[in-house]
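Researcher: We plan to redesign the surface later, but first we want a full-length starting point. Tokens attached.
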């Protein structure tokens, strides 16, 4: 198992976040988001100046298989979202985050169209240019999240968002979708309740009289 933090970067903004993080946080390995990732570090960060849902979904599923942590940093329009922090066995997966975003958005069609655009044309670049101050700020917050993960604190499912026009920040925690096949109970939601009851009460009718 590879120790440390792996920062996968997309385009100039992603690389700038990685460079700043490397200066303030030990054990950071930077790799460009091309090709297949053979081995993951204990904490995987993806820094991207545009939506990269296909990549996030792929990393999220591997995190769940390999008992590691994933922290995405994604820019969508004027907003930078750090998180949600995805950890095996805790919080939610990327699939749940996407479903919740679409569920609560005033413009779900807009979010879906942007996502599909970058998924279909994954080799094309996102918006050019970025502010160095914002890359520094994101790296500093990433460092805090990594410290919390290393200390074993409960950060799974939490996210932090910065609007680059208003400089307003918000924080929150994602609630998983109850029938999610990745992070849910992995049971059919229609039979879950009575099957669980049968399992828990099976001693009543298996007992020898
Ligand atoms: Zn899920």
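Model: Full-length starting sequence:
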């Amino acid at each position: 198992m590879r120790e440390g933090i792996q920062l996968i970067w997309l385009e100039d903004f992603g690389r700038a976040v990685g460079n700043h993080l490397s200066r303030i946080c030990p054990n950071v390995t930077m790799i460009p988001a091309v090709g297949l990732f053979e081995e993951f570090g204990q904490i995987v960060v993806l820094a991207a100046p545009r939506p990269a849902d296909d990549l996030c979904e792929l990393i999220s599923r591997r995190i769940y298989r390999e008992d590691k942590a994933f922290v995405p940093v994604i820019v969508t329009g004027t907003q930078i979202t750090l998180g949600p922090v995805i950890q095996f066995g805790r919080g939610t997966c990327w699939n749940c985050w996407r479903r919740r975003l679409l569920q609560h958005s005033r413009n779900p069609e807009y979010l879906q169209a942007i996502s599909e655009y970058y998924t279909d044309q994954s080799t094309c670049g996102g918006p050019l240019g970025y502010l160095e101050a914002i890359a520094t700020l994101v790296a500093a917050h990433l460092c805090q999240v990594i410290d919390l993960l290393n200390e074993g604190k409960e950060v799974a499912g939490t996210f932090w968002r910065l609007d680059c026009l208003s400089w307003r920040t918000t924080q929150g925690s994602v609630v998983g979708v109850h029938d999610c096949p990745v992070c849910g109970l992995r049971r059919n939601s229609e039979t879950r309740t009575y099957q669980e009851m049968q399992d828990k009460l099976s001693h009543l009718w298996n007992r020898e009289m």
